Amino acid sequence: MEERGFKKLIVWKRMQEFVLLVYQLTEGFPKSEVFGLQGQMRRAAVSILSNFVEGYLKRSIKEKLQFLERSQTSLQELIGQAEVCLTLGYFTKEQYEAFEKKRGEVGYLLFRYMISIHS
After folding, report:
1. How many CB atoms lie within 10 A of CB 83?
2. 5-19 pLDDT, tens per residue?
């Protein structure tokens, strides 16, 4: 099946990989974090994708950028949460580095996509 629309974009594919990584990294959190940090991080990761799709489907540039900025905000929210995970020992240093590498990649691609819309 041929990929169409947003599904063919590299930024979308990297966002999907990032969501999967967040789910994998938060899987081993203590039960006490299911409705806390684990749930919050998973919702933020999914929000990146959801807002991206909503923005992609908007006709006006202003509306597109508003949703893409929300996507960026959710991505930034995860920075602080990952720091907490590292501090509490929920992430190893290697897991944190993998998280940061993928987050940085998604952030860069999202930023470049937003610039391309402005042009």
Report:
1. 13
2. 899 999 999 999 999
